[in-house]
Amino acid sequence: MPRPDGLLTEEEIERRRVALTKQLRDSAVLRRYRRLGEGFKKRLAKKWGEPLKLYEIVLKGTLDGGREFAQGAQADQESDFTFQALVSLHAQACRVAGEVLELLKAGHARGAHARCRTLHELAVFAGVIAEHPEVAERFLLHDAIEDARSLDTYQTKLAGRPGYEPYSKEDVDFVPARRDEVLNRCGKSFGDGYYGWAAPLFPPKAHLTFEKLEDLARLGHLRPFYDWATHLGVHASSRGVRLNLITQGDITTPLAGATNIGLSDPGHEALISLLQVTTSLMVHGKPITDDPTPVVVLKALMTLTDEAGEAFVAVEERIAEEEAQVQDDAKRRLER
Question: Has residue 95 been placed in a domain?
Fold first, then answer.
């Protein structure tokens, strides 16, 4: 019997839940959804084929060049920490750039912006370490500070809740002890915030920020792109909500899925950051020798990155022109 106030009874809610769950599980519905997605990706690949191909070429060349550089490097003891840090940052940059590529191929440009933000951070860290190798070892040791901070957060915020066991006594004893050991070695400022590893590069008691590291790496001019990616693909914010709107003709709606527009900015930005990390590695990762290979690799990657950027912009402009034509045609039909 329905309720007098017109609201659904618990029994009716349960009946509808069961029916909807069955409908959502329907494999035929899922197959149709997948076909739509596959069709979209094929059309996107056709339209964006040239810049995506160039992106992949740059990524492959970077992976191969970095691997050969790392395998062939004979870093001396003095530059060993610099080599280790830059190789590690380069490997992570290659991985993140690969993630950007997959997001672009799926039409998730906003998500690609988020990974571009990470690539910029890697480029900044690599740039600072390349120019100031005296902090390379500190950078590698700083995970002791971050591990201890993470353990404290887990133990106080999550441990003890159903399904989340506290860390063992051995872990609780070891992680802070390791933190204290590196603090005794590197000084109190080493544990300040997330960038204490770079403290010797600034005046005593300076408040270290990522923006200051950007300027030190001579990448501060890219801050607007970093800020844009922060709101567009990373943090929840009112500006992010506004930037997530997409307009076609007179209709503006929030973007809730994939799109074939907006790939040029994250595509080119990712390759630029990847090239910056690669340059730091190949120029500062080991003592300079007479071997011209790193210079040749970098120049080739620069050329291909420029070509990819031009190809991305060309497709974006072509799509804008096509959309404008569609809207003009629609208006003319309405005016008849």
Answer: yes
> What's the pLDDT score for residue 184?
96
Contact assessment for residue 326 and residue 334, using Cβ atoms and an 8 Å cutoff:
no
Q: Residue 59 and residue 90: Cα distance in Å, rounded?
A: 12
Please give the pLDDT value at position 277.
98
Give me the residue label for tokens 């970077």.
62
Torsions phi, psi for 29 (to 5 deg): -65, -45
State the pLDDT at residue 77: 46
What pLDDT, on the 0 to 100 scale, is given for residue 73? 65
CA atoms within 13 A on the CB side of 33: 8
And the tokens for 323? 């959309």
Q: State CA 322 to chain mean position distance.
A: 30
Q: Is 6 left (phi over 0), alpha (psi -120 to 50) or beta?
A: left
Q: How many domains are contained in the chain?
A: 1
Per-position DSSP letters for 141-197, written without gaps between them: HTHHHHHHHHHHHHHHHTTTSTT-PPPPHHHHHHHHHHHHHHHHHH-GGGGSTT-GG
Question: Would you report the helix, strand and coil content of the chain in percent, each value rounded to 5?
Answer: 75, 0, 20
> What are the average pLDDT values for consecutive 10-residue runs of the chain, which has 336 residues?
69 91 86 93 96 98 93 62 95 98 97 96 98 96 95 92 91 92 95 94 93 97 92 86 83 90 96 98 84 92 98 95 84 77
For the entire predicted model, the pTM comes to 0.90
Task: Please indicate, yes or no, if residue 152 is contained in any of the structural domains.
Answer: no
pLDDT at 79: 54
Cα separation, 104 vs 54, in Å, equals 13
In a domain, 29, yes or no: no
Could you tell me if residue 292 is inside a domain? Answer: yes
Domain around 272: 39-133+220-331
Query: Between helices 27-47 and 10-25, what is the axis angle to 10°?
Result: 50
Q: Residue 129's closest CA among 85, 87, 93, 94?
A: 85
Hey, how many other C-beta atoms are within 10 angstroms of the C-beta on 249? 12
What is the rounded CA–CA span in Å between residue 110 and residue 98?
A: 15
